[in-house]
């Protein structure tokens, strides 16, 4: 069962939805799964929606409706969004109850719809209404702020992110999630004093916070300032989380800034064992170019571009590599 489910995950990751559906049918015929299992039914409904097999999806949705109304509303909303029935999609997504396991995902789906429709102001108003509904629930209030900031961060609307996170911190002072997120946003809009203050608050709250230590050290290194301080923060983060790819990348990037390219390369190679983040790939390629290893740089770029053909960082490197 575990092996078959893992194989199904691979096919799903590759967006081979028809093949996944066929494999689920194979699992059902061999009595590995039961379509009357609510979790299996939800997977089958979603797979059929993605494959645009809407009638088949509806059969599973009818079963889900009797068992979990919130899951039914969420999946039905996705179905209508896929069919481009925007009003119906929003109608069902908004029926998902606050605090339900589908609630956060339904907010993301509503945001995707409104952004696709160019209704950014309407999306901001939507989140204000949602916040009014949960005034006395600190956990949900913070969750809503984080979801809204994540959505607008992806849209590169950093000023709005900063504004809502700052207002959130007025009410939820020293909330670690809000502090960390605002620090990342502050760095994007060059409010480095606030960025530094927020991260230092996090470190004061938890001196073993490797993410905060790394973020502070990496930003100093990336801006080529206070490199000795950067080294202390990154080295401490590495002691706490020695197998974190992003922290290993920070160490490599710090060495790059110090023009210690051979040492930097070792850290990027190790970082890529734990994470394939495109920023690590970008740093590795830039280091290889400094080492005049152009052939290897182009091979690395080609390998990762195949798996991430739309990544902005990797696309920008095409011009750099073609000019060499």
Commentary on this structure:
This protein has 324 residues and is mainly alpha-helical. 78% of the residues lie in helices and 0% in strands. The protein has 19 helices and no strands. It has helices at 2-13, 17-29, 38-50, 54-67, 69-82, 86-93, 103-116, 120-133, 138-154, 158-171, 176-188, 192-205, 210-222, 227-240, 245-257, 261-274, 278-290, 294-307, 312-322. Helix 1 runs antiparallel to helix 2 (17-29). It is globular and about 60 Å long. The termini are far apart.
Brief description of this entry?
This protein is an all-alpha fold and 324 residues long.
Brief descriptors of the model:
mainly alpha; 78% helix; 0% strand; globular
Which secondary structure elements does this structure contain, and how are they paired or packed?
Blueprint: H1 2-13, H2 17-29, H3 38-50, H4 54-67, H5 69-82, H6 86-93, H7 103-116, H8 120-133, H9 138-154, H10 158-171, H11 176-188, H12 192-205, H13 210-222, H14 227-240, H15 245-257, H16 261-274, H17 278-290, H18 294-307, H19 312-322
Helix pairs in contact: 1-2, 2-3, 3-4, 3-5, 4-5, 5-6, 5-7, 6-7, 7-9, 8-9, 9-10, 9-11, 10-11, 11-12, 12-13, 13-14, 13-15, 14-15, 15-16, 15-17, 16-17, 17-18, 18-19
């Amino acid at each position: 069962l575990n092996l078959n489910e893992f194989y199904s995950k691979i096919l799903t990751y590759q967006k081979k939805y028809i093949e996944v559906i066929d494999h689920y049918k194979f699992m059902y015929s061999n009595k590995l799964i039961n379509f009357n299992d609510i979790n299996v039914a939800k997977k089958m409904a979603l797979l059929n929606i993605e494959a645009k097999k809407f009638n088949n999806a509806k059969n599973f949705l009818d079963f889900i409706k009797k068992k979990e109304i919130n899951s039914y509303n969420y999946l039905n909303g996705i179905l209508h969004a896929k069919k481009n029935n925007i009003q119906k999609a929003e109608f069902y997504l908004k029926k998902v109850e606050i605090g339900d396991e589908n609630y956060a995902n339904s907010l993301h789906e509503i945001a995707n719809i409104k952004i696709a429709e160019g209704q950014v102001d309407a999306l901001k108003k939507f989140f204000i209404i949602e916040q009014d509904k949960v005034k006395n629930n600190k956990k949900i209030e913070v969750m809503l702020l984080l979801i809204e900031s994540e959505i607008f961060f992806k849209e590169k609307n950093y000023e709005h992110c900063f504004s809502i996170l700052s207002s959130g911190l007025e009410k939820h002072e020293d909330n670690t999630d809000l502090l960390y997120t605002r620090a990342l946003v502050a760095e994007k809009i060059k409010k480095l004093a606030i960025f530094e203050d927020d991260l230092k608050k996090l470190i004061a709250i938890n001196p073993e916070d490797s993410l905060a230590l790394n973020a502070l050290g990496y930003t100093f290194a990336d801006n080529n300032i206070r490199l000795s301080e950067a080294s202390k923060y990154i080295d401490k983060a590495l002691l706490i989380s020695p197998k974190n790819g992003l922290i290993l990348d920070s160490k490599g990037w710090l060495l790059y800034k110090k023009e210690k390219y051979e040492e930097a390369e070792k850290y990027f190679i190790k970082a890529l064992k734990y994470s394939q983040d495109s920023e690590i790939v970008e740093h590795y390629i830039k280091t290889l170019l400094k080492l005049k290893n152009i052939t290897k740089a182009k091979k690395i770029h080609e390998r990762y571009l195949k798996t991430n053909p739309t990544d902005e960082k990797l696309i920008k490197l095409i011009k750099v590599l073609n000019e060499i």
